[in-house]
UniProtKB/TrEMBL annotation:
Name the UniProt record assigns to this protein: PD-(D/E)XK endonuclease-like domain-containing protein
Domain of life: Bacteria
Pfam name, any one: PDDEXK_1
Domain PD-(D/E)XK endonuclease-like span(s) in chain numbering: 533-804
Gene3D superfamilies documented for this protein: 3.90.320.10
NCBIfam families xref list: probable DNA repair protein (TIGR03623)
Amino acid sequence: MLTALEERLLWQEVIERDMAATGFSLLQPTAAASEAMRCRDVLLRHEVPVDDFSVRRLFGWDSDCQRFLTWLEHFDTALIQSHLATQADCLRACADVGSSESNPGETVDLFHCYDLQPLVIAALDRQVQARSISPTEQPETALPPLTTFPTRQAELAEVARWAADRHRAGKGTTVIVLADMASDRALLEYALRAEFDCLDARYNELPVNFSLGMPLSATPMYRSLLCALRLMLTSVDRSDLLFLFTSPFLPLACRSEESPQLLVIQQLFALGKPNLECTDIRHYLAKHDPTSPLISIIDRQREELRGRVQLGLGEWHSLFRRMLEHWGWPARDGLDSLEFQQFDRLDNVFDDFESLASVRPEVALSEALNLLESVLNDTVFQPKTEATAIQVLGPREATGLTFDAFWFCGARSTAVPGVPRLLGFIPAALQNQYHFPTADYASMLQKSEVTLQGFRAASIEFYASWYQFEDGVEQYPSPVFPSCSTPQDIPDYWLLRTSAQRAEIPIDILEDDYGIPIDAEDGTSVGGSAILREQAECPFKAWVRRRIAVSAPEPEQLGLSPIERGNLLHAVLYEVWGRIINRDQLLALSMDGLENLVRGVLDQIFGEHIHQDVRRRVGAACLELEALCTYRVVLDWLLLERSRNGDFQVVSREDSRRLDLGGLTFSLRVDRIDRLASGEMLMIDYKSGGVGSASYWFGERPSDPQLPAYALSQDRVQGIAWARLKAGDLKFIALGGELGLNAEKPLSKQLAALGLPPETTWSQVLEGWRDALTNLAAEFGEGYAAVDPQPRACDFCDLQGVCRIRQPPLSEMPS
Ligand code: SF4
């Protein structure tokens, strides 16, 4: 008999073959396979005569249903050819075998079995004498009114408190039944752990049994197994890579914040690729962490996979085992009891994996890994725990059991009885005619009523509850219950708990805006001018970024990142101003000459300056487009420079220099310095992205102190300017007198426009900058790290999770 996974894979194969043969296409063949599997099972169990003309005619009215009939025929043929059967086929066989015997032997009592499908009843009738026993309805077992809670969390918290109180008082068996086990289990478990204080150290001491386990693939141990094996593919995604480096079940866990693995991760993420190739991982490991065991693992993988494309599942099994041995999985010393139970399932997992050979004889590596993941998804891990007084069950598991006290949670109308759902590949008329359970609201309601009556009759104490709002959307109580109470006046559980704990624990608040001061050796650079900008924007930002070096990993990039585009533009301009060094040369060039010069520079830069990784990631078409945009911007910019009305000579490009401020040394790289007709200097910074106004250079904490810092690093400076190189908006934003730029106002008017005294001289401007920047440098050196952002400093800052600027102060948190 096929397992559910084998059956689904066979359906998938049938559907994929049909798609290949007919050109019919589906967005999600896997989902279609699951739905088709469900439909065939229901048709068989309800003994629908699919071969009847009248039934087939109904299927013919809908193209999806019609297609399903074709698949159904192919699937049945595949079963016969392979001598396989599904669970429903086996029931059919049981119903057929022995049909001639009039007196089956054993007697079987069916307790609470009110929704048996016709095929099951037929099979039972042929094999045994079945008697149905239902709970009798008595006046004292009438269902009580529902208790109403405002939210799911409030309801589950109250239930957890009730169960914990009963347990502490030794009041006998307690059961909690969750109408929606999938959604509520994790929240209830958390609430129970909080009640029993089993969140951390005493994690395994929770005195609760959950009837439903979790898929093995969701356990950290098996997730690490999948991540490790997925590295055999040519690339891994970012989350898998992080898991490889952090899982305690693999030998790569980062050992300290100084770990070279952090540098490797940082550099891999900086590539901007959504999937990271093994060759890149190996390259950066060899560079920064040459003793990493991952290098030999990657080499071993290459060797193992050489020349192997399609293999049988048995061969993939052996290879996976060898790789896991090489990884040393699970690398953790001393597995605890839960982990040991999980590890113990490995042989069964691989047995199930190999058994899929009946439907997938030979597959490629990626499919073998998908199959292994499917097996792990389908293998539910239910830890063996001590017998305890508290049970958490789903409605099906609780049926027929008896308890001292019983609480039914989540009795909303959408869960009890639920919402009717038509199967996608079976005509609706047929589903109604045969009373398919999921299509018939009346039978769903009746089934829920009988189930709950059974629970009520089997418990001494019985409670039931629901919650009124889910994500702000109003819910409705289950119609199975006679009425419901007014909402419980309970504030949100999590805040309640926090405030209760807060009341018990005195909190000392220590205001300390200073980190450790810098002990810089003379002349040792602490970094670039970006430190001053960040210190001005928000001291905490500068401290976190520059002193403890925390930043978010680079995000994935589609195309070139803004930094990569800026770097290319800078490189092109560097080269252009190496070939044209003054205004006379610029004016001497004809338009054709200018165009040829820019084209030549672009060919050189785009041919030589782009790393292979970036080329592979963005593709040739994207680079061509970028080259075209850069060509237009640079050409237009040179035309603008040609219209400058003063003489100039480019005397420096990308010049490195040092600046001493407030006892610290900063390293600067100035994009360009022009000597003007007066012999004085103009400091220029290229800006391809957003740029502010000249007011950003002033104030006690200038928002953009980069150009002022450049000005302080050079003698005989007459002005500073941003060269704004944005397509359609090219201009100089400058400050200074007689700079030879177009439409230039006298310095006094420029200063007045900025709200500064017009009589201020240029040397006073420079002095002002020296004072402001010295203060910023001194603050940084002293470790001043207050969370004190300037307006808009937080807009694009990725440190909000660290500084908690959006979180209200503790004293203002709701009680
Ligand atoms: S988010 Fe705002 S307050 Fe927080 S570090 Fe960044 S700039 Fe400072």
